[in-house]
Specification:
The protein is of the alpha/beta class. Helices cover 27% and strands 28% of the residues. It has two domains: 155 residues, Quinone Oxidoreductase, Chain A, domain 1, CATH 3.90.180.10; 126 residues, NAD(P)-binding Rossmann-like Domain (Rossmann fold, 3-Layer(aba) Sandwich). Strands 3, 5, 6, 7, 8, 15 and 16 form a seven-stranded mixed beta sheet that branches. The protein has a six-stranded parallel beta sheet with strand order 11-10-9-12-13-14, sandwiched between helices. A three-stranded antiparallel beta sheet has the order 2-1-4, with no helix packed on it. Helix 3 crosses helix 4. The longest helix has 14 residues. The two termini are 16 Å apart. The structure holds NADP nicotinamide-adenine-dinucleotide phosphate. The site of NADP nicotinamide-adenine-dinucleotide phosphate has 30 residues, from helix 1, helix 3, helix 4 and strand 10. The site of NADP nicotinamide-adenine-dinucleotide phosphate (NAP) has 30 residues, from helix 1, helix 3, helix 4 and strand 10.
Length: 311
């Protein structure tokens, strides 16, 4: 099969699109014939070696940890799927990834894909949606009527977080560049703050929850946006527990794992018209390096998708 792999950490030119063996499946695995994968910042962070200590990989490594496709074969102990099922997944990041024509994934990490969207759209959803769900709902305990601020509303995580928070009945403020205001409003944001405008940024206040998808100065500025007792949840770096205690606020940090239960609930929200994927770029598998370079700019809108196979 064809796969986009690295043999050593480094720049995007380390990515080789080459022949690789079709993965062998264990008793708990399904083999997915992929139609599309999507790109997340963690893909190029792993390719650069930034996560080397936490995730010691054997080389060569197939990149990418989002997929939509068709079940080709099932392991001996799998009872939940059958060949021909249309599925999507954010598989275990410790195993070979999804920029490939086939991927072996544990059946418990897989869900039936939403029926009303294409494989290309479905591949854009798992990682960012599990992240937004774990941050806003599982960790920060989002309730209807709460005021939520979502940083980077036009990004992969932010674009789904806005829609998820609206689906759960929140009042949503999102940050974005001025040129992306209309788009972010179309996702459901009640208010959009241009993060390049210090006055507008400083005026965002009294939030029950702030979702930090940026870190650094943005996380630092997020504290003042919270009301007393408010919740700062981050996916970039753990906010200070000492500062939370001193300011009477709550904090949480999320680093996601596969979660098929969330993907099953998400499929219902998608098929019910509550959440729609936002695709900002499409690439062929041969151009996997270009797809990662686009993500690395940090300026993309929605998700970048890679076509890996035939629909
Ligand atoms: N912990 C976890 O489990 C987990 C899971 C998923 C993602 N992450 C991390 O979360 C971060 C976001 O991921 P993502 O997939 O959403 O990234 P992304 O799609 O690459 O984000 C791009 C977006 O960020 C916006 N942006 C950049 N700087 C901004 C700022 N200072 N304020 C507001 N918006 C800004 C850009 O809009 P403009 O063009 O307007 O600047 C662009 O639309 C990444 O660092 C990723 O690695 C962590």
């Amino acid at each position: 099969m064809k796969a986009a792999r690295i043999h050593a950490y480094g720049d995007a030119d380390q990515i080789r699109v080459e022949d690789a063996p079709i993965p062998a499946i264990g008793p708990d695995d399904v083999l997915i014939r992929t139609v599309a994968a999507s790109v997340n910042p963690v893909d190029w962070k792993i390719r650069r070696g930034y996560l080397e200590k936490m995730l010691p990989y054997d080389m060569p490594l197939t990149l990418g940890w989002d997929v939509s496709g068709i079940v080709e074969a099932i392991g001996a102990d799998v009872t939940t799927f059958k060949p021909g099922d249309a599925v999507y997944s954010r598989p275990d990041i410790r195993r070979n990834g999804t920029y490939a024509e086939y991927v072996a994934v544990r059946a418990r990490e897989v869900a039936l894909k939403p029926t009303t969207i294409s494989h290309v759209e479905a591949a854009s959803l798992p990682l960012v949606s599990i992240t937004a769900w774990e941050a806003l709902i599982t960790t920060a305990g989002l309730q209807p009527g709460q005021r939520v601020l979502i940083h980077a509303g036009a990004g992969g995580v932010g674009s789904i977080a806005i829609q998820l928070a609206k689906a759960k009945g929140a009042h949503v403020t999102a940050t974005a560049s001025q040129g992306k205001t209309a788009l972010v409003r179309s996702l459901g944001a009640d208010e959009v703050v241009d993060y390049h405008n210090p006055t507008a940024f400083a005026a965002a206040r009294d939030m029950d929850i702030v979702f930090d998808t940026i870190g650094g100065d943005t996380q630092d500025a997020s504290w003042a946006m919270l009301k007393p007792g408010g919740f700062l949840v981050s996916i970039t770096a753990p906010p200070s527990a000492e500062r939370a205690l001193a300011e009477g606020k709550r904090v949480g940090f999320v680093f996601i794992d596969p979660n098929a239960a969330i993907l099953r609930d998400l499929a219902q929200l998608v098929d019910g018209g509550k959440i729609r994927p936002l695709i900002g770029g499409e690439f062929r598998l041969d151009d996997a390096a270009k797809a990662q370079l686009a993500s690395e700019t940090g300026r993309t809108t929605g998700k970048i998708v890679i076509y890996t196979g035939q629909p």
